[in-house]
Specification:
This protein is mostly helical. Helices cover 34% and strands 3% of the residues. It contains six helices and two strands. The relative contact order is 0.08. About 6% of the residues have low confidence.
């Protein structure tokens, strides 16, 4: 089950978090079900209230957080220097210009390519080549934060 494509279409205050909480709660004790929850707002584990940590089969819940893990949780850190452009295949429907931009940043900056995008570093020569060919800059052609 992959919910974002279905639940993101709902407006605010329509019960997406409650529905997700109920589904997760129901699935924790099922032996046939494994779930990965990316919960940046701590809505489901229940750090400050009732949540998955309170389930009778809470031993089936493994919680990772980048910020001050509570008792029973683990810290999760991702080394962005190990991520390559192809690791994003299937994560989103990237346009060809977006894929090209990721590849160009990786080619120019190597393991620092994601940091370079975040820091808004230029592609210099590659940008000039693209502007000569397409009459647009790489950034205008392929904003990485835009969805097709």
């Amino acid at each position: 089950m992959f919910f974002p494509s279905h639940l993101d279409t709902c407006n605010n205050r329509q019960g997406k978090s409650n529905l997700t909480s109920c589904i997760l709660w129901s699935c924790i004790d099922k032996d046939y079900c494994g779930i990965l929850v990316l919960d940046p707002h701590d809505e489901y584990y229940g750090r400050s209230g009732l949540g998955l940590k309170d389930h009778p089969r809470k031993e089936n819940v493994i919680y990772y957080t980048p910020n001050s893990p509570p008792p029973g949780a683990n810290s999760l850190r991702v080394n962005i220097e190990l991520i390559k452009p192809h690791h994003f295949d299937g994560v989103s429907n990237w346009s060809s210009p977006q894929k090209q931009a990721m590849s160009m940043y990786f080619k120019k900056y190597g393991s620092k390519w994601i940091e370079s995008i975040i820091m808004d570093k230029s592609l210099d020569e590659t940008e000039k080549i693209l502007s000569g060919r397409n009459n647009v800059s790489c950034k205008a052609q392929a904003p990485l934060n835009a969805r097709p």
